[in-house]
Amino acid sequence: MAYDLTKPADPSLAPGEARCPGPQTRDLIIRDQDNAPAALVEASYQFLGDEDIPYERYTSEEFFEKEMDTVWRKTWQWACREEHIPKKGDYHTYDVGPYSVVVVRSEKDTIKAFVNSCPHRGMQFCDAGSSGSGKQFLWCPFHGMSWHLDGSLREIPNRWDFPHVNEEEFGLMEVPCDTWGGFVFINLDANCEPLEEYLGVLPEHFKDWKLEDRYVELHTRKVLPGNWKMCEEAFLEAYHVLATHPEGIHTTGDANCDYDVFGKHVTRFIHTIGYPSPHVAAEVDERKLFANLGHNPDDLPEGVGARQRHADLLREQLSKEWDADLSGLSNSEMLDSIEYHVFPNAMFFPGINIRLVYRFRPIDVDHTLHEILLLRPVPENGPRPKPAEPIDLAIEDSYTKANEQSIGGFGLALVLDQDTENFHRQRAGIKAAQKSGAKAGATLGNYQEIRVRRLHQTVDEYLSA
Ligand code: FES
Ligand SMILES: [Fe+2]
After folding, report:
1. Where are the alpha helices (DSSP H) in 323-411?
2. Residue to mutate, 120, 137, 138, ligand 1, most ligand atoms under 8 Å from C-beta
3. What stretch(es) of the chain map to CATH 2.102.10.10?
4. From the CA of 34, how far away is ligand 2's center (Å)?
5. What is the pTM of this model?
6. Of 23, 61, 124, 230, which residue is 20 to 30 A from 43 by alpha carbon distance?
7. Which of ligand 1's atoms lies nearest the C-alpha of 119?
8. For the chain, how far is it from start to end, CA to CA, in angstroms?
9. Which one of 102, 145, 161 would you pick to mutate in the ligand 1 pocket, going by the greatest count of ligand atoms within 8 A of its CB?
């Protein structure tokens, strides 16, 4: 028997207070009784209004330009992993909209970031999207001016012709740069708040999930046919699981997913893997569940739950395969889909089986570059493997092209295809409603789509700042 999810909310509840019948994700995590980190059961929800989100925000060139001038110029964004620039002289170029920044390892333990534009006549001194290594200085290919790795001027060819140039003031244009979790972040706003403050609860929540001790085992880049917010939103809620990923509901929580908003820049969802959706089951049949998780039901020992056994088997298998000690991790950390969004464009999953990082970058009002990184713990007894080279997927390519096995080995490629196949239709439908004057905006669920609403409110806070 499944829970009845069709009933309207109890009218005595205030807006946003209604929840799916049955245990919520945090109840199920507590039920595991395996000392899951306190952060996973911390709740932080607040009703933020129920007005429609105007479609114009996804379609208007003018709105897009305003976002470019504010949101993308004043926020912290990760440019690359530290492992992408391991040696002094290594650099990596991060581009978004009209902006381009070069991050450089200027000393063994120092990383700096510079606007990718020559102080002479504006030439980009590094190609957009490029990375390189080993040089002792940065050099502009137009007239050959060069700078030391710390950004200070090294040489102006034909120096005699520039008596008016003060060498002290002719360095590269430096922008704020800092690191967290093995990621190099940049911000184009010289007056920005420190990264640590910007990240809110993140450093505290991730203190035992050291992303700096993981390496990039897979990296994909794909253009998505949609506005950047529309594309991100598809990954901010599990409400769509029932319709978009219907095969998932036998092993995946959805309607009972936890949603949290942790201040201005960070939101989170957690949904379980290893329990069926409340849409299909109130009483869990453990043998059936164990079979749905890909095992022989006869291998489930008496008195052991399917989720527990599934997590134990995975812990054992991956510890061996990866040369990593996963013994102290809770079932939730091993299995669940735990996703933190950091405004404007990053998502970090600290889990082990679902160990993803997403980054979204607007290309134009209708297109977004979506990158996926899979981060695996570095082997305990071995060197850090080199980060995987990015695999470029065309807009119509299936994620299976990036190798179904290596993209997590948990059917992720097919799930991503389902998610991204929605975008053509959603973009077209938004325009059809808006341009015809039929409906001017999207209507959101109060709880399950709170992260979507928060995303828009944060955009507004930057636009009006
Ligand atoms: S534009 Fe760079 S050296 Fe002239
Ligand atoms: Fe999805």
Report:
1. 331-335
2. 120
3. 77-196
4. 28
5. 0.97
6. 230
7. 2
8. 51
9. 145
Task: For residue 122, give the ligand 1 atom closest to its CA.
Answer: 1
Do residues 220 and 397 touch, judged by C-beta distance below 8 A? Answer: no
* CATH code of the region 25-62+201-464: 3.90.380.10
Residue 123 CA: nearest ligand 1 atom is: 1
pLDDT grade, residue 382 (50/70/90)? confident
Q: How far apart are CA 420 and CA 195, in angstroms?
A: 31
- Strands (DSSP E) contained in 263-413 are 266-271, 337-342, 346-348, 356-364, 367-377, 391-393
User: Tokens standing for 438?
Assistant: 């039929």
CB 184 within 8 A of CB 82: yes
* Domain range 77-196, its CATH number among 2.102.10.10, 3.20.20.150, 3.40.630.30, 3.40.50.720: 2.102.10.10
DSSP symbols for 201-248 = THHHHTTTS-GGGEEEEEEEEEEESS-HHHHHHTTS-STTHHHHSGGG
Give the pLDDT score at 403: 67
Q: What is the mean pLDDT of residues 220-228?
A: 96
Tokens of 80: 């690359």
Distance 245 CA to ligand 2 centre (A): 7
Range list for CATH 3.90.380.10 in the chain: 25-62+201-464
Q: Which residues contact ligand 1 via a Cβ below 6 A?
A: 118, 120-121, 123, 140, 142-145
